[in-house]
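User: Hi! Is it possible to get a structure for several chains at once, not just one? Here's what I have:
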Amino acid sequence: MSFLGNLFAKRQQSSSAVARDRLQILLAHERGAGESGDSELIQKLHKEIMAVIARHIAVDQDKVQIKVDRTSGCSMLEIDVEVPQELLKKSGGERQRA
Amino acid sequence: MAKVLVVTSGKGGVGKTTSTAALGAALAQSGQNVAVVDFDVGLRNLDLVMGAERRVVFDLINVVQGDARLSQALIRDKRCETLSILPASQTRDKDALTPEGVARVMDELREKFDWVLCDSPAGIERGAQLAMYHADQAVIVTNPEVSSVRDSDRIIGMLDSKTARAERGEHMEKHLLLTRYDPARAARKEMLSVEDVLEILSIPLLGIVPESEDVLKSSNVGAPVTLAAPDSMPARAYFEAARRLAGEKIDVSVPVEKRGIFDWLFNKKRVA
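Assistant: Yes, the chains can be modeled jointly so their relative placement is included. Here is the combined structure:
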């Protein structure tokens, strides 16, 4: 059994890889929060954009991906919202992506 | 003039006190004059880990407040004469540490020793900030575990903003000491690897201390692991780290799991 278990386990991401990815996302967020003024703006934008989207569709918070890319010149806020398939059909198949 | 080093982590229980004792002893064993200072007021333990708990008469707060001279409070290690301990107070609270008083004591320590190692309390509050304020360099003790890495990241941010060096616009040298590392679990990808932690924290690596029974055995008997079990894996890692602190350029040896056929048969793990 354990042999079979191992065989299947390999297909999954290892727990250390999950840990690394979670930390990288979290720390990218936290490092910004402490220092620069623009992060406050980004937080605000994030909140308000989410509020607008939530007005039209029920957003599952677990299916929202937020990425902030910081280069020396600018910061880029990327919000990826997964929209359930049924909703898309109802609204005539429009692409909804913020 | 001493180099002042803070041993810090943010998170508790990762091995700050063990590492302060082991690194301090390792530096002292190479003939340099070393003072280890316990900043964990109210929860002092460096004296206990180093086997000096029954020799404490005066402590850091007595010296800070001018009730005792520094020479009265310093305890010289019985096994290594170039190693001294300045214990924290067990009864007073950390508010008794004034920034001016700490500055005066640190200045005096700088004149007397080659190295001053400050054992920081856990957390990011006043006690931890006082411990790091006068440091020239920092050793960040981290376990390969998410909460420890996150807290280390926070502490790195504070070292770059809330220290005397940072206020003067000078660079604070930071070293990562990865402790309680289990090479077998890392190989099975059940534990963050050295590369993972280095990539996330992006500070230079001082050493990798493997998880080992010898660490607990040493603290049981009140001796730094470099004195109690100098040939053990953790002691060797600390000796190497101490040499690196002193400026030697040596490669960091990554502990790897060595399993012979007999270990495999009897399902035993050993670290080499």
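The CA atoms of residues 4 and 39 of chain B lie 13 Å apart. The beta strands of chain B are 3-8, 34-38, 75-76, 83-86, 115-119, 137-142, 173-181, 205-210.

User: Great, thank you!
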